Structure formats: C-alpha cells, structure tokens
Amino acid sequence: MGEIEPGSEYSDIAEQMSAQARTFLSTTTQVASGAAPGAELSLLILATSDLLAAGARLAAVVDVVPTERFEPDAGPETDVDPLRDALAKMFAGFDDYVEVSDPALNADVAPATLSGDLACVAEELAKGLQHYDDGHELEGLWWWQFSYLSSWGERASSALRVLQGVLGHLRLDVEDDVAAEAEYDALHS
What we know:
The protein is mostly helical.
C-alpha cells in the first residue's frame, strides 16, 4: 500500500522531492544552529530556491491520488518550535514583514515572519518525509503536492523574496560618501 512503481513517472519525482526536502531541512537546521556564520542568507536562498524548483515539478504533474482514500497516520508531528525560535533570534530586526495575502483575489496586506514561513515549510516537508520513509511513497508524494499548493509553496516563495531583499540591502545599501568614493575610484582607474 502506498508504494510507487519503480521507474514510473512518480518514482523520479518522489525521489527528487525526498532529496530536496532532506536538503532543505538539513540546511535550515544547520543555519538555525549558527553553524554557518556569514553565509546564512545565501545558504537559505539556495536551499529555498532548489526546494521551490522541486515544488514546481509537483505542480506540473496531474494530481497525485493515493491508492487509499485516507492518509495513514504518519506518527507524531515534527516539533518545529525550536527551529522557529532559533531562526527568529537570528533574524531579529528583519523577521517581521508584511505581504499581500492573496494577490490573485485582493490587495489586502497581512503580517508574516520569515522564521514562521521557514518553519511552516519544514513542518510540511517533514510530514511528507514521514510517509515516504515509512514506505508510503505515494502518500508522501501526495502530501508534498497538496501542501505545496495549499501552504509551503507560497510560504517558501514569500521567504525567498524576503531573504533576497535582505541580502540585497546588506550588499547594496551603502552610505552616500562610500558610494561616491567607489564611483570616483571606478572612473579614475
């Protein structure tokens, strides 16, 4: 029950999604632990971008439908609160942001947090991995596809935008006198 035929269309997608989920979870956990000082934003941008590419493949296939019409119990939910808290501390000063809630339907803005977005993505990926690792590959793939469309795809996209924006500010926002000096040096070299 819940196994994917080797070599089938879903087999490659499930294997790739499993690898991307593991990479995202590992990278996010390592960054949150402080193991990558100075590279935090770049690593999270890479992991989130790669994950979104895998999610796009999920969206490109016809809806995955598990053999059984119920989701088997995957066990206890993954506790992402420690991850969320560690990221919130790391992102102090830029964790909170506002976004358009549903740009397709209205222009209402809502508060969000970068740490909350990344923790939400981690929680959804971990649940899919529980199914996948328990031998319920099809249910894992179904969960990743469903939750990509309903939550983690949007949360990861929002997080990526914030991460890119923060990195851009860090690298490009300079004092006027520093910019003028660099411009002068560039013109006279």
